[in-house]
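Typical record was shown:
=====
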Amino acid sequence: MIQNVISFLQQTTRGDSSGDHFRFAASWALLLVLAVILLVFLAHWIYRHKASALSHSNTELVIRARPVAAKNWFLLWRALRGVALLLLVIALARPQYGRVERRSFTEGIDIMLVLDVSGSMRSQDFTPNRLEAAKEVIKDFVAGRRGDRIGLVIFGASAATLVPLTLDYVVVQQFVDRVTFGLVDERATAIGLGIATALKKLEASKAKSKVIVLLTDGENNAGNIDPLAAANAAKALKVRIYTIGVGTDVRQSAAAFFGGMLGPEAGLDEETLKAIADRTGGLYFHATNNEKLRAIYHQIDKLEKTRIQSTQFDRFDELAPYLIAAALVLLGFELLLTTVRVVKIP
């Protein structure tokens, strides 16, 4: 039970957040306050029940005494001693007043999201289609990041940067939501150009960790930059590329097209996507439905975690010297009072 009381005192006297605080460094000593209170009551009880005795031969002193005034001075004398003892006990608990400051050091990650908006992303093997499914998952991914700069690049036959690296996640989500077909030429897929456009935004980055998350459902058939050459450039810049292939992984575009589910550009070049990830230290993922795509982004989110280090600074002044000084003053006054005003008989 005593241990529980001590824990409660520690919790109530020590602040856990930044700002001005009052606390007891040795809060266990506050339990002695109970001992002081019991001691005062015990002394008072003994005083009330102790038999009086008169050993002075001159009763004139008693006759001239004023009982009420003497009693008041005697109570004051005892009060001074009790308060002084109480102050000393509180001083033993080391009361302190000062500030607690917490400083966080964030080692953020620069992330470029590269999204395929070619015509094949209209395919409805995802709900409602591949592009809309990817947009919803990407917005959730952005919402879950902390302390990272995030940018957005879209590509089809050409590529464009919609959002440079920023900490404004709301802006990133708004632009992701506005992504639609027709913003760039959607008649082909330039994966190498999409990677190169993202690398331009990461080239001047000072972040210790730089990442590209590339999502596509096709193969590189446009642009003048080979995807593997772009991967080599990313490796030189120490940029990891996570590649995500969505949809079918076989070249059955014609049959799928006649089936009414997929567009005419359904071939997924998994071999190239795996090579891009391997060369840069990233990973390749394959998603065939909305749930798997969401799980992939969740896994990437766990793999690329921002390092946040918090440091606490305590700056407290000891108040015990002031309490000890006050207790000594009271004891000195008590000594003076017993000398000039209070006479004990016997």
Observations:
- The two ends are 43 Å apart (CA to CA).
- The domain at 109-305 is CATH 3.40.50.410 (Rossmann fold).
- The beta strands are 19-24, 95-107, 109-116, 149-155, 159-166, 209-216, 239-246, 284-287, 307-318.
